[in-house]
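User: Fold this; tokens only.

Assistant: Input:
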Amino acid sequence: MEGLLNETLELNNLLTFEFVGDAIFAVLVSFIFGIMITWTYQKTYKGNTYSQSFVHTIVMMGVIISVIIVVIGSNIARAFSLAGALSIIRFRSAISDPKDVAFIFFAMGAGLAAGTGNYLIGFVFVGILCLLTYGLYKLNYGDRVIANKILKITIPENLNFEGIFDDIFQEHLEEYKLISVKTTNLGTMFEITYQITSSKENSDKLLIDAIRCRNANLRVAILMDQQGIYM
């Protein structure tokens, strides 16, 4: 009886050491995956709100997911308990770039591969997707030749705004549409807002210079469409 107990304890110790070793290896592999993913993210990022904290979060998320999968293993009770615990978590920060969401799922997929011990599949998955993402970035795939913008023009109140810039727009723009007209500067001026479509071959500076010659050199502003028309 005593011999059987000793053998059981030795087996438990062996399983514990093996479990810890697997967990450490999964963490290291998922960390490497995270570095590969974040390197691709940094190289392909085009936005104006780059965050180092988000880069660190991607790496941490992959590692955390891998540890969670190792701990759960095939235990159904642990899986349900974890699902209940995670259901109370709420993310308060809005994702500004839709591609950031894809990188979050990218890190989660890599962490799942590392946590389940599918290291080869994980390396293939991460490597191929990093190459594809970088290739899309270098090829500038999906970029539009035509750019939608918002044009705001200020004119004196004694100037008739109806059709006053049509000849200029026809020369410099692909399309244009009047969106709104409102008074400004205590009613002494009008602010006219257009939605315009210009090709990259046309210069915004030439358009602005032509408008300034007609609106008494008052304010002219061109905004990207996503910035909104009420800025």
